[in-house]
Amino acid sequence: MAVVGVVYAVKILCKIVVGMIAGSEMLLADGFHNFGDLADVVVIITAMTLARRRPNSRFPLGYMNIESLGSLVIGIMLGVLSLRMFLVAGAGTVALFHVAWAGKILSFVHHTESTLDPSRMPLLIAITLGSTAVSIVMSKFEIRAGKRLGSQLMVDDGKETKSDAWVEGLTFLGIMANFLTHSVAPELIVVAFLGYKLFVTSREVIVPALDTLLLRRIDDAHEEGIWEIARKSGVLNVASVRTMRVGRHMAVINMKLLVPPETTTKEQQEHKYELCRQLIRYLRGLDYLDATYEIRYGYPDEPPFTMDP
């Protein structure tokens, strides 16, 4: 994944520098969009690294929330870049009708006006087509490596990289349309589309990060699966199940199970061991890297615990 991160960083640098030199807002927008891909790589490396670190007395649930804090910062940054693209597309469209205030907005967001200089065309074509080819190769590499290492995170990122190739292909078509029509209108359409894609990426990063930092419970369907496994584990009933996210791919599972009064402590321990094994297999299938299990046992019609003064 470190190699993938370096490739993304080089792509971002090339697109932004060439976009500024050639005066292509589309290439700048595509370069900003790749920040989201670089953020995904950072998140994956962080998750895989921190997952190996054991909890300690100071951090009994581990360090997984560091990943979510970083994701939140990156997501906000991507949202700001998305807003800039929408402003460029909107104000640029209005500027075509020679409206004065539109020029002020474009100046405020440091918009680089397209030069439509034919001499820049070979450089733009080389960057866009080269970047598309790199995305296709990287996508296949990540998907194969993820399957080999058993990392669904890498497989999912590989699929996202494949979709980036389509975006980069669209950027190439937009640049061609600019020069063929001698108009900035095609560029504004592509910039608006890339702004939308960046907004979606920003939301996909921010929402899970907030869910984790606010200690939200896991998805309803996932929690219902835990209920079902507990019900079928041989107990009389399941009194309660509570879940909590810790990091984007770690959870805390707290449950109380009702068993017959004659159940021994040894039988409870054996049941807990087997139940945890089933839950581990279930959660790993849902891309959770780890979980903490707090399982308590009680009896039907058990009187509430009270402490006399």
UniProtKB/TrEMBL annotation:
The chain crosses the membrane at residues 72-101, 121-139. Its main location: membrane. The keyword Transport applies. This is Cation efflux protein transmembrane domain-containing protein. GO terms for cellular component: membrane. The keyword Repeat does not apply. GO terms for molecular function: monoatomic cation transmembrane transporter activity. Belongs to the cation diffusion facilitator (CDF) transporter (TC 2.A.4) family. SUPFAM superfamilies: Cation efflux protein transmembrane domain-like (SSF161111). It is a multi-pass membrane protein. It is found in: Membrane. InterPro entries: Cation_efflux, Cation_efflux_TM, Cation_efflux_TMD_sf, CDF_Transporter. Keywords: Membrane, Transmembrane, Transmembrane helix, Transport. Residues 3-214 form the Cation efflux protein transmembrane domain.
